[in-house]
Amino acid sequence: MYAGGMQLREIMTAGVVTAEEGTEVREIARMMRDRGIGSVIVCDPEGAPAAMITDRDVAVRVAADDLSLDVTAGEHASRPLISGQPDMDLEEAAALMVQHRIRRLPVLEDDRLAGIVTLDDIAVRTGNLEVAQRMTAEVIEGALPEFYFHERG
Fold first, then answer.
1. Less crowded by CB within 10 Å, the N or C end of the chain?
2. How far is CA 95 from CA 1, 34, 90, 92, 105, in A?
3. What is the pLDDT of residue 4?
4. pLDDT per residue as tens digits for the range 29-59
5. Within 13 Å, how many C-alpha atoms sit on residue 24's CB side?
6. Are the C-beta atoms of residues 43 and 20 closer than 8 Å to each other?
7. pLDDT of residue 149
8. Is the pLDDT of residue 106 over 50?
9. How far apart are CA 7 and CA 9, in angstroms?
10. Where are the beta strands (DSSP E) in the chain?
C-alpha cells in the first residue's frame, strides 16, 4: 500500500511546462535548465497533451546518438503519454507508474493538462519517504537492463 485515501489532485503540481511538437530539443533543454525541471509535456497542434520529453530523452535519444539539437521534441518524446486523472487514488497512480516504469505522471482532466505528479511529489507531499523509495526502486529495477543485475551479483 502506498498512501491510502489520497487523490492525485491533493499532491499534483499544477504549473506544468509545455511545448509544441515542433519545438527544437535545444529549446527544450534550455527550458529544463532555466526552470529546474526534468520534463516537458509535448502538445499536438490542437494543444492537447500528446507526449512527454524528459532530460533522459534528451541525453539518451539525442545526445548519445550525436544528433543535432535542432531536432524536434515531437520526434524524440516518449509516447504514448501515460496519464492519470485528478480523482485517481494515489495507490492506483503509483501502481500505474511502477507498471510503466515512469517517474512522472501527467494528470489530465477532460483531456486537458491539469498537473503532474512525480516520485518526489509523492515523497514530499505525502510525508512518506519509505513509499517513494520503494516506488523509485521498483521503477528503476524495471528500467535497468538484465545484465546490470548479473554484473553486480
1. C
2. 10, 31, 9, 5, 11
3. 57
4. 999 999 999 999 999 999 999 999 999 888 8
5. 7
6. yes
7. 39
8. yes
9. 5
10. 18-20, 39-43, 49-54, 104-109, 112-118
Return the DSSP state at 21. T
The phi, psi pair for 38, rounded to 5°, reads: -115, 5
Alpha-carbon distance of 29 to 49, in angstroms, equals: 19
Write down the domain spans for the chain: 8-151
- Any residues with CB less than 8 A from the CB of 100 and at least 6 apart, and which? 82
Residue 89 phi, psi (nearest 5): -65, 140
Q: Which three cell numbers stand for residue 46?
A: 490542437
Whether pLDDT at 144 is above 60: no
CATH of 8-151, picked from 3.20.20.80, 3.90.1150.10, 3.10.580.10, 3.55.50.30, is 3.10.580.10
Between 114 and 129, where is the model more confident?
A: 114
Burial (CB < 10 A; 0-12, 13-18, 19+), residue 5, is: exposed
